[in-house]
Model the fold of this input.
Amino acid sequence: MIKGIHHVAISTPDLKKISGFYHDVLGFDVESEIEWEAGTEVGALCDTVIDLKNSSAKSVMLRKGGMVIEFFQYRSPVPKPVDPERRVCDHGYTHICLEVKDIDAEFDRLKNAGMTFHARPPKGDPGGLRAIYGRDPDGNVVELLEFIPA
Done:
C-alpha cells in the first residue's frame, strides 16, 4: 500500500548554493545531510540502490511544512549538465509548487533575493487562484500559488 510521496530529489552542481537558497530565502529547514565516497561500504550500498558504479556524493534534505526536497551533488560519476532554461513542456521534472499567502509580496521578496520570473503574477482570478513560475539558482522551475478565498 502506497501511503504518499515522501520527498522529491534533484541533482545540483552546487549543493551549498542551492541548499542556501532553499533554506535562507525560501525558509526550508535542514532535516538531514549525508555524504559517501566511492569504494567505501556505504558507497557500495548506495551504488546498489541508485544503480551507479563508484559513486560519491553529498546530499541534504530540506523540509517546509509537508514538503521535503532532497538535493544531491555528485562528484562521481561526473553528471551531465541540464539546460537551466529547459522548457516546462520538455519531458521530465517540470516544477515545484509552493503555496503562498500573498503572491505579490512573495514575488517582490524573491525577485529582490535574485530569483528570476517569467512575468509578474497575473491580476486575474481564474478559478480562485493566482500563480506564477520562476526559477531557482539552478534553473529549476518553482511555481508560486495563492488560493483566493471565495
